[in-house]
Amino acid sequence: MMVLCVGVLFGCAPCQDAERFAGEQETVQSVLIEDQTETGETSSEGASQESGVEVFEETEYSPEEQLRKNEEKFYEEAGDQGIDRQEADTYLRVLMDDNIFQNGAMELTGLRIADMDGNGQTDMLVVVQNVQEKYLYGTGGLWFYMNEDEPYCFYEEECPYFGWYSSFWADLDDDGNVEITFCAQGTGCGGPGDHYKAVFKYIDHSVERMQLPSDYDEDLEEAYREYGLKIRVFQEPEADSYSAYCAYLDEQISFHAENSEGWDLPDTVCLAGSNVRGFYDLCVAEYEGKKVLQASEYLCGECGVPHGVAEAKFLITWNPDGTPQVLKWWLEEYSAPYASWRESRICYADGYYYYVSQMDHYYLYRCKEDGSEPQCLVRAHAGSICVQDNEVFFINQTDGYGIYRVKTDGTGLTKLCDSGNRLQISAEYVYFCDTYHAEYDTRGLVTEEPSEFEDDFLYRTDKDGLRRELIATEVRQYVLSEGDDQNVRYTGQVYCWKWKEENTVVSRMDLDGQNEEELCRLGSGIDFLVYEGAIFYIGACDGGEKIFRFSLRDGETDSFRVPESTEFCIYDDRIYTLYKGMKGDLYRVAINRIDWEDGSSEEVYRYEYASEDADACRMSDLFATGRGVFFRQYVSENEGCQWFRLTDDKGAEQWEDPDQIPGTLPARNIEYGELNSVKSVLVSTEGYEAYLSDDLVYEADHTVGDNGEGYGVYQICLPQFNSRIPGYKKINQYFQRACQEAQTDQEAFFQILDGETGRFSYYQMTDYDYVYIGERFITVAKYRGGYSGGIRSWTVQEPVTFDRQTGEAVSLEELLGMTWQEASARLTASACKRLERDGNSWFFLREENKLAEEFDPEKFFLFPEGIGIYYERYAVDCGAAGDYLFVVPWEELDF
Q1: 788 falls in which pLDDT band (50, 70, 90)?
Q2: What global pTM score does this model have?
Q3: Nearest of 474, 388, 385, 482 to residue 427 by alpha carbon
């Protein structure tokens, strides 16, 4: 057999030469780390899942026993990869015939069996290690069995062929040929440890090693200058502030990290650290629609290698001549891993929190990590807040749930899409759910026209909102990441749950919606999150509740009993649940913390209140961020609910500073009258009659049937003002036109009555029932109403406000000097503050914002106390609940 081998610099080295494998290195222990590759992942035999460190026991060497172990491991690895015993026999026979185990001198340490180049034939990647010189670098080989070609062997003195390794394959340079990436964990400690990596191209029936931009050592200084990536880390005079400069790309990025304890801040910017030990965590990424390689670099600060300050990420491809090219780089700050089960209303990025301000009208805000320097970015109610590359993406609840983006300094507000919900982002795309739009269904995923009310269609669009595509249907909930890295960029998958056959089905697909696979079925409908290789969800069990964990690695499920929970999140490997209960005469809402691994559970914070307030939602919105756990808690009648952050001493601190952020004044909620309508209790301005002349009055009757058994009444009554109002002529003309328009509707009403039979009594009217006379403005509560045989009469409010001097009708935007979207955000925020005080969680601002959604800028009234915003019956509540009218104080509006 002829064996072609690829050396470090594309030379050849025959793998049969066992002496070539022997090294002089010191025997060491193998340190294993968790495999995080996307495809083709394999870990070494005997790895400890608890500690990540494998302990090897010395045994007497026997070639025959080693061959038996190799055979046993081969079948085990093949079975784990879905290869049955009969097929595995065929592949093992090939290896035995080629004697790659050298009659028992070599140990099988890794195996991948797959169609790597996608031509329909099975390929093999085999890793072997000299069994008598175990755990030494360079004492093994990496074999490629591609199609019917002669096998190829790669040998490198610096490569550890023992312990943990991973491999994956994809066309990483878009030339139509597959690249195979091999990564092995060595024995180094500190920083990223010791990661060996190599990329091979399979082309023209041969294997070639490809150069990586970070492949260099002291003997390859020239290659380093040409391809290597050197990053310099600079420390700023400001606490916890750094910047990183990459000369290769001539780019500098600022970031935040903790300064080393005990070191003084420099007076000026100074060099503090650099990148350490080359690339690690290699994986396949998608960039501008093509596959590329993503790699990480560990950056250290002023205290040396142990002082990690950030990770640099690189996207890499290769030019046609084989030289590597870095397409893009960015930094990711270190933070605790976390996952939240709801769309984000508070998140952390690059030294700032971005959040919905509970103090200032639920506007989109940002502030520094310690809560200082708060800044309002957008005067709108925001949901699903995501931050990346100095841009904030969010759902604008006060503009029809439109999807927007704005720069992190508050400039460049841009609308991307008219509507959406459940927003998340990757590096190049914005993901969201919405109703069905056929023009974006380029794959033909929908064959029957769905209901206009279904909004479980998953779309993605580029970050300019120009290229939109439907990628999945029937998506009730989805997440893009696994909790350990919430800053999803060019890698990842979509996890989603769908309701199928009375079950919650969780599936996984590529970021473009392709290659969907079912993972598990969880029973009844649930909300879930994905965290570090497992699906977590709360479900009923044995008369109580449990948190379940379904492992994506082995399919096993375990659980942990919890009190009755309403929300949960995960922060730094521990689960936080929000639950409520009763102790004596007091109700308790509390946060529980669960350590899954040791089984411990403890209450870390509680809030108690009297039983008469039992209906109040005193705590809500439990969110984890990369810098801690946040929630909302009731504070007072004027403040409503505010943000709190858990502290290390099992307490919580109010987060927003009232001395720096303006507070929202709560509106007055007018109570219902006997007719279940707030309009029935309105009182006009005292003495308003003195400003009126005779009303415009019209009435007509209409009988139906030979005996006049049915009849209807059509009425009009509209005001006319006198000369005590300077603009009275203009105002009167408005109502005169309204009277004429109302009379033209009479004929249509009577025609409807002609179609009725039997005894009935219907009426229809145009009338007014409230007049406000102010110093500058006048409001008339004009309305239309009637009875059409249902349980309740119907009314349509058509209030109108006039400028007292000119007589011109005034819009809400003109009155307040802002757009109707801004007016909606400001006015409905005041109403929500009132409802928070009343404990009415039905209207709390979360993913849904009923008051903003149904806000009508034409339905406003002026009162001596402020501006009233009105909601028709059924608009925001059931019909039996009646209508709503909130009066926002003038002081709140700076009027």
Answers
A1: low
A2: 0.85
A3: 388
